[in-house]
Amino acid sequence: MTTATTLGDAVFSLNMTRGEDFLYKSSGAIVAAIVVVVIIIVTLVLILLKMYNRRMRTRRELEPKSPKPPVPPALDPNSNSSQQPATVTFNPADIQVETR
């Protein structure tokens, strides 16, 4: 199949064999098939992740709960002890300015 298009002074000629013509006409179907396959793969991955998440959640819920480790009183925000929080004092003399 030969196609010639005249555009002003330029003439474009395109020679296509029978195989190239078939590929050109079926390229839309090929792209659509690739898109469908990608969508199916993504859907399968999402379903597998959902099943894995559900299985891990049920496994965590069925495990016996371990007691919480004791929190040191200095780090416990709800403690009513008389300890004062650690303070940091800032001395301007600690800053060393680099002179050039």
UniProtKB/TrEMBL annotation:
Top-rank lineage group of the source organism: Eukaryota
Biased composition (Polar residues): 77-90
Spans traversing the lipid bilayer: 29-49
GO CC term (a single one): Schmidt-Lanterman incisure
MF (Gene Ontology): structural constituent of myelin sheath
GO BP annotations listed: peripheral nervous system myelin formation; regulation of myelination
The keyword tRNA-binding is assigned to this record: no
Keywords for this protein: Membrane, Transmembrane, Transmembrane helix
Chain positions covered by the region annotation Disordered: 58-100
Keyword Transmembrane: yes
PANTHER family cross-referenced by the UniProt entry: NONCOMPACT MYELIN-ASSOCIATED PROTEIN
This protein's name: Noncompact myelin-associated protein
Native source species: Myodes glareolus
